[in-house]
Amino acid sequence: xxxxxxxxxxxxxxxxxxxxxxxxxxxxxxxxxxxxxxxxxxxxxxxxxxxxxxxxxxxxxxxxxxxxxxxxxxxxxxxxxxxxxxxxxxxxxxxxxxxxxxxxxxxxxxxxxxxxxxxxxxxxxxxxxxxxxxxxxxxxxxxxxxxxxxxxxxxxx
Length: 157
Prior knowledge:
Layout: E1 2-11, H1 15-22, H2 28-31, E2 35-40, E3 51-57, E4 63-74, E5 78-85, E6 88-99, E7 103-113, H3 123-152
Antiparallel strand pairs: 1-7, 2-3, 3-4, 4-5, 5-6, 6-7
Helix pairs in contact: 1-3
């Protein structure tokens, strides 16, 4: 059984600026508080097939390693990843779509192929949890990108 959820925000900035922020992996902890570190393995370029190495904070306060495979990069529109959520395969990513008035619709989506003990959790409860966490992440991304865009805007006198 697959469980899918999406969270959205309209960001007052270009898709290029939003995508640049999303692919600045050193800044992921700004919007994803459980991510202590994130980088492309070997410092290589962001490309399909690359591996992201992360250190994530555990519920007990320690950290543990996690890896994600980059499964799609279509700058400045799409980036997606594959990894594990417990025993379950997970894919997730971002879609940036240009909107009128120099803005971008950002969609953060996640899909989990539920396996093992995770099958005991009702799909509706799982989707609700994803929406809560991903909604907060999208709100932090929006805030950071808009703050950066305003701070770097060129003034006309």
